[in-house]
User: Fold this.
Amino acid sequence: MILGLRPSVVITTAVAVVGAVILTIFTWAGSPVTSGTFLVATYTGLFLGALWAMYATGLVVVYTTTGVFNFAQGAIGVFSAFLYWELHVNRDWHSIAALLVVVGLFAPALGVLLDIMLMRRLRTATLVVQLMVTVAVMVLLLALVGVVWEADTARRVPFLFGIENGVDLGPSRLPWHRLIVIIVAIAIAVSMRYLLRRTRIGTAMRAVVDNRELAALNGARPNVVSSTSWALGSMLGALGGILIAPELGLDPATLNSVVIIAFAAAAFGALRNLPLAVVGAMLLGLLRQHSETWLDFGPNFQIAHRSVAPLLLFAVVVALPQARLQVGRVAHHLRRHERYTNWWEGLIGCGVIILLAVMLSGGWLNFKIWDPAPWGLLELNSANAALAMALIGCSLVPLIGWAGQLNFAPLAFAGFGAFVYLKLAGDTASGYWIPLVGLLCAPFGALVALPAARLRGLYLALMTVALAQAMSLIFFPHPSVIPRTKVGLQFPDIELFGITFDDRRGFFMLLVCTFAIFVYALVLLRRSRFGRRWIAINDSQAASATLGVPVVWTKVVVYAVSAAIAGIAGVFWATVAGNLDSAQSFDLLIGFEAVLLVAAAGVSIPLAGIFLIFKPLFTGLAARLEEAGNVDYLVTFLDQLVIFGPGLMAIGMVFNPRGAIFEMGRGFSPILPWRKDARAEIAAENAQKREPEIGELGLERPFTPEEVIAIDRRLGILDEVVPKEGYGNSRS
Amino acid sequence: MSGETATPLLELVGIRAGYGTIDVLHGVDLRVMPGQVYALLGPNGAGKTTTLGVASGQIQPHAGSVLLDGHEVNGVSPDSLARAGVCLIPEGRGIFPNLTVAENLRMSTYAGVSYKQVQERAFAQFPILGERRNQMAGTLSGGEQQMLAMSRAMSTDPALLMLDELSMGLAPIIVEELYEQVATLAEAGLSILIVEQFAQAVLGVANEAAIMLHGKVLRTGPPEEIAEELTAAYLGMS
Assistant:
């Protein structure tokens, strides 16, 4: 213990400082340090920090007062900024009026709505469901922005008081807008701190997270309190979005990505400490601006400056003591209902997948909507892209579904696989390298598992967000990782068994077969010792350890398996695309959407990846219908479904946390001739609805014959022939 | 004290209640007269905590009525009842572990007593809480946590106090200390409903007692008589 700090904090800080010093020495750009340039870098950094601090304040306030880490915090800001633009610029309202309406009226209403419709029901949900629903809200809000304010016009939110006017600060001028941002950010943080610590409503907001029932026994109205929390969080998000928009421009993706920087700042305050979160944001702003001013990472790492936030997030999350998150939150586990899939059932299922794919693509299935015809290039291309994503989705099943290790970075693993394949196979594109890609990706996964092994829940999720961000900012853009070729494709058609899969249909069948193999492998894995161990460590690490399960090793294995699957999937994914534009292909949002769909499907089910064909499938369908003409409303409907579907499906988890495939399977399985158990389950459920209450176990009066039957049924000793009389006296 | 004409402060009539489809209470009748200390005793699983849940508005009964001072309060939310002066100290440390001691006390102010007064009274009763006012409540010892929970009863002038398993998991000396506080409250005329599994401590304070078994109040009477029957009831020989 040094200065009362934990060793992990001291070590991480020391490593970070030494690393920063070494980095500075080697990358010093050589520009002269004058008081002027230093001052400019400092106040620009402070301003950036203030912007991030506003989002971070929102995150921390929502987390401490609702217990939900709100991934949608940035999206609320985006939507509000667009609404502000609509009122202020498009409809010529006065800026103050527009600000009041958006921040004072719209935002709290949105917060209350979110609470009543969704968040209130999430209190006892698993962390996966909680996070997924907030991610879903994020995706939905961004989709809504895209639909309401189409991207065809350029929009600008003007600076308050213009960009030219401001205070003179030596060599340059600090615009009023930026000064206001810095002041507002600090004022918000101070007032929120005061609200949470020094007022009764603030205390009640935190108390409700601790123990809702007790808060009610004290006389606080829990529902009112938590709605207030969400209204407040939403207002903070709105204000942040409106003040940030003039700086970054009104682009939904850019504006939303700011929230990930805010994750780092919030993590700096252990997600609960408001002053530390603000300090973290300021620190990030200063680091970012000063590194951009003084350091030159060379042409290959041009956007590496932006990786300050994910790196800090990574460091902070790894250094933080883990126990704190657990206090006061009861972990609720879903009862597992899924049964083992038999090996032969898996085989039949995979056969059905392949058969369906052949029939669909061959145009043999006629849905009476359009002329049945074999799929053309357009459909095959979108189907191939979809299947490649579905393969990536398979990697999430063991990791999230069974071992409970939240992972928002499946695309980082997939991208790594594409990189390994490029190095191994090069231009030859020999498919025989693909299994080796899997083997080489496994150690990469294991490497990620090492810091992940001590992390749990939310911190783990944040670490994977940091990993995905850092990889897409530092690793993938480097020209020697995925070189940009002027002519030809980086990823030519795969060659396997003497066949070059250069025609789209052949490649489609290769993808379908690979998907079937992956699903079957997952079925077998679930039945194996590993499957049992992963689920065991998810249920209780302590219990697993006492049974002799090596917890860390088990986690390393699941990460390795997941990385191997994702790596192989990445090869196909890159081949479908042909070229990988590194900056876009590994976008975190795509990863979010992938995780969202798999979770909505039911992440513990081997087939869950199939939901990732959702988007291209419906896009293709809509295109096909448009060709056929005369069903405009259906085309529009499908287009909207593509945009809002993933979010809506994931929101469905609030009501159906086991996922869509599980529920579908429950309805479908009794049809299968060999599933006696499924029919018995349904029968038992129906019987339970009809059964009379057993009462007080015959202590007060003799059992009636109906009760005897009920007891026998409960005990499972009911004969086929139900006795009409007997067993004691019937009620007179 | 409990004349025929007086209105009971709390009266449960034919309460049937439980969790989901499983009934725990099968027709509970119970009356706490003003100024009475009523001890509800019974073994594990008898339905004592559920009874308190119904009386405090946390659990809605399937049948029967809850009367407070003669008014039916079925369906009234627990927070409204709390503000009206029904104070339930739940079993297992009724505190907010991630709030400081002072913040826990601030949560007691909903019943109408000012923050300043709540603090003054709580710290006067339990000086140790004053010393730890800025400490997280979750880091207090078990006894201190129960004192903090009890301080809500001491400082908010409730009309009816309900205590659930006050002694659970605490050292005998601390239990004794807590029951001294209960006795003080009783002397001041507060109506108290105490639920306990282990009867020794509570029978000293109570002036009415009842045995609960299998979701029903089996017998009501003076504490001395009830104490004799208790063993039989616990062993299922009633």
